[in-house]
TrEMBL record, chain A:
Residues 108-212 are annotated as: Disordered. The lineage of its organism: Eukaryota, Viridiplantae, Streptophyta, Embryophyta, Tracheophyta. Residues 108-121, 185-194 have a biased composition (Polar residues). It comes from Hibiscus sabdariffa. This is BHLH domain-containing protein. The keyword Nucleus applies. It comes from the Eukaryota. Keywords: Nucleus, Transcription, Transcription regulation. Residues 172-184, 198-212 have a biased composition (Basic and acidic residues). Its main location: nucleus. Residues 224-274 form the BHLH domain.
TrEMBL record, chain B:
Its main location: nucleus. InterPro entries: bHLH_AtIBH1-like (IPR044549), IBH1-like (IPR044660), IBH1_N (IPR059002). CDD domains: bHLH_AtIBH1_like. It is found in: Nucleus. Coiled coil: none annotated. It comes from Hibiscus sabdariffa (roselle). This is IBH1-like N-terminal domain-containing protein. Keywords: Nucleus, Transcription, Transcription regulation. Residues 10-72 form the IBH1-like N-terminal domain.
């Protein structure tokens, strides 16, 4: 209890900042619903690991939902996230009260500076987007605040009203992050696309120049447009091309294509062909439906006896052979099945359900797998 | 590590575990009349799509697909059999055969055009892709990046779905 009190005391100074933050995340159905994976996954297929941090924070918050204080305590990744951005903006760190003070930030910032470039890049992008939208009236800041956590903004927007930011930041919370992140990006892309640079460029030019030198990984060269707007645009384009590259790997026969439009064409054709195949198979299935009772038996037996069977494991005739899939992953779950006798056990459906349950227990439920799918080929963000 | 290797077992397991019982139920309920055959196709198609949506939860497109399916089932139940039960299915059927060629034509034209027009071409293609993926015109995928991510997962899941369906049909 004593330690709790101490921690609470520690948190108290920052609670004024982060109070509403946690409260929002507590009571927020949005946060605890299934939309979390959507946000983090849909945005991060391309390999950005911002969603991973994002998801880390959200995940931790969701787990310890009882006490808002404990949420912060049990969220070391949150602390990590803080200095990453603040490290870039050294001049404004003095404005941050509470545990996220300067020396702490610097220590962690230095160690994290060489961290994953993806995360920095994405964080920076969100900083840019934040700068873009955040330099509008303060009322807008509150709504548009993206992923960066509250101490960041108070740290970053030094030229703005820190008090306002701190309090408004409290209202943002993960909910805002979760809810506004796509909107922010949308806003970003909409702005970039619509070329509505005037107001935001002027406002952001000041804060845009300061962080410019810190965006070492963004390659903001001299002579190129360095305002946040163009930087954001460039980052957005990089992100898009990153995802195009991933798509290129997915779609068979696209390894040598270099044009974006051509690539999109291939994707269109591939999606259409897949949909046509589904429709064809669906009609076929409807025709043979009465005999379907045997299917499960046969599928399961085939899988168990021949774990490398291509059909179910993704090596089907229509699949690109370059998409190698090590059957060990699948057989790892099935090998636990004791009966390899061709005389199949009488309850294959039960077995399948058990395997499904095993998969779920082993963490193969979509919450984790889809995250892994969304990342740079990495299952966990720490990798 | 290929993320699809991670996704595949759970997707396949869920897909099969949803679809097979569903199809079995259809087989039990359907009576062998001509009028029912058409419905059987639609029902099977519905179950196939629903299996896809449920096996790949967590994506914007899967949510959109599930939503559409449920919506259309409600419409179907209320409006009678005459109404097509899948609006998005109609989209597929309309866009697939009709627009398959124009996509290829765009391919040829694109190379002769200058850059700003190529950007427009890209935009056209992206718009077209939005029609293909469920929920593509929705608010979740307004972002181009989001759209591309969703496309990645959608393509992978479609592949898996095709493989599962093929394997289910292999032994008939």
């Amino acid at each position: 209890m004593a330690s709790e009190n101490d921690d609470m005391g520690l948190e108290m100074s920052s609670i004024t900042i982060l109070n509403k933050y946690s409260n929002t995340s507590e009571s927020d159905p949005f946060f605890s619903s299934g939309w979390d994976p959507i946000v983090s996954q849909s945005e991060s297929l391309g390999g950005s690991s911002i969603a991973s941090h994002y998801h880390l924070v959200m995940e931790n918050q969701g787990i310890s939902g009882t006490s808002h204080v404990s949420q912060y305590q049990s969220n070391p990744s949150f602390v990590e996230l803080v200095p990453k951005l603040t490290g870039f903006d050294g001049g404004n760190l003095s404005q941050i009260p509470g545990p996220f003070s300067l020396p702490q930030c610097n220590q962690i910032a230095n160690s994290n500076e060489r961290g994953s470039k993806n995360s920095l890049r994405s964080l920076d992008e969100h900083r840019i987007s934040e700068t873009l939208v955040g330099t509008s009236p303060n009322g807008k800041i509150r709504k548009r605040s993206p992923e960066s956590d509250s101490p960041f903004r108070s740290c970053k927007n030094g030229n703005e009203e820190p008090g306002m930011d701190l309090s408004s930041e409290g209202c943002d919370g993960l909910r805002e992050q979760a809810g506004k992140k796509p909107k922010t990006e949308q806003n970003l892309s909409a702005n970039s696309r619509g070329k509505q640079a005037a107001k935001q460029d002027k406002d952001s030019s000041q804060s845009g120049e300061a962080p410019k030198e810190n965006y070492i990984h963004v390659r903001a060269r001299r002579g190129q447009a360095t305002n946040s707007h163009s930087l954001a645009e460039r980052l957005r384009r990089e992100k898009i091309s990153e995802r195009m590259r991933l798509l290129q790997e997915l779609v068979p026969g696209c390894n040598k294509i270099t044009g974006k439009a051509v690539m999109l064409d291939e994707i269109i054709n591939y999606v259409q062909s897949l949909q046509q195949q589904v429709e064809f198979l669906s009609m076929k299935l409807a025709t043979v439906n009465p005999e379907l009772n045997l299917d499960l038996d046969r599928i399961l037996s085939k899988d168990i006896l021949h774990p490398q069977s291509a059909a179910v494991l993704g090596f089907g005739p229509g699949t690109n052979p370059s998409h190698t899939f090590s059957p060990s992953t699948f057989t790892g779950t099935i090998s636990g099945f004791p009966n390899t006798n061709p005389g199949f056990p009488p309850l294959p459906q039960t077995v399948l359900e058990n395997e499904v349950q095993n998969l779920f227990q082993m963490g193969f439920y979509p919450g984790s797998t889809m995250d892994g799918f969304g990342l740079d080929g990495q299952l966990k963000p720490e990798m | 590590m290929d993320p699809r290797k991670i996704m595949q077992p759970s997707f396949t397991a869920k897909y099969v575990s949803y679809l097979v019982p569903a199809l079995t139920n259809i087989g039990k309920q359907a009576s062998p009349s001509v009028g029912r055959c058409i419905d059987a196709e639609k029902i099977v198609r519905y179950e196939i799509d629903m299996a896809l949506a449920l096996s790949a939860e967590g994506f914007a497109w899967s949510h959109a697909l599930e939503h559409k399916l449920r919506l259309n089932v409600d419409n179907h139940n209320h409006a009678g059999k005459s109404q097509s039960y899948l609006a998005h299915d109609d989209d597929h059927r309309n866009t697939m055969p009709v627009n398959h060629e124009p996509a290829a034509k765009k391919l040829k034209v694109d190379r002769t055009r200058s850059e700003p027009e190529a950007a427009e071409e890209e935009e056209e293609r992206l718009t077209y892709l939005r029609k293909l993926i469920p929920g593509g015109s929705g608010e979740m995928m307004v972002d181009d990046e989001t759209l591309l991510s969703e496309l990645g997962s959608y393509v992978s899941c479609l592949e898996l779905q095709v493989n599962v369906l093929r394997s289910m049909l292999q032994f008939n």
